[in-house]
Each structure stands twice: as structure tokens, then as C-alpha cells.
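Input (structure):
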């Protein structure tokens, strides 16, 4: 819900059956690009108000900006 307030949508989520890799596909129609939209989300009161930092549950992360075909 904190991301939805900032125009993000969850397009899908998958888990690799052989390990603990989780892939979360998130979309945003950001007119100024992905980076400003991400910054606005991470700097937002909604993100600051989460009871736990979601990053606490990650061993690591990788962000890749992609376009639909």
C-alpha cells in the first residue's frame, strides 16, 4: 500500500523452486523516470511509517529497469 500511494503497481511475484530467490516485478508510469519515482517513495512518510524496514528481510537485492514488449 505504501508504494501504491506513489503510483506503483505490483505486476507479479515469483519464487525460484530451487532456492530462496524471490522476484517482484513492480511497475510505474513515471513521466520523469524510475529514479525520481523511487526516491519519492523512499523519502515518503508512508515508507517511514512502516512498522519494519522491508530491507531487513532481504539478503540482497538487484534492481533492473525494463520495458514491456
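Output (sequence):
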Amino acid at each position: 500500500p505504501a508504494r501504491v500511494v506513489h503510483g506503483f503497481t505490483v505486476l507479479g511475484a515469483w519464487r525460484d523452486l530451487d532456492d530462496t530467490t524471490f522476484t517482484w516485478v513492480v511497475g510505474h508510469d513515471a513521466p520523469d523516470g524510475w529514479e525520481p519515482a523511487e526516491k519519492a517513495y523512499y523519502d515518503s512518510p508512508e515508507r517511514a511509517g512502516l512498522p519494519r524496514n522491508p530491507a531487513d528481510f532481504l539478503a540482497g537485492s538487484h534492481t533492473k529497469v525494463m520495458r514491456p514488449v
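Notes: The longest strand covers residues 8-15. The longest helix spans residues 34-42.
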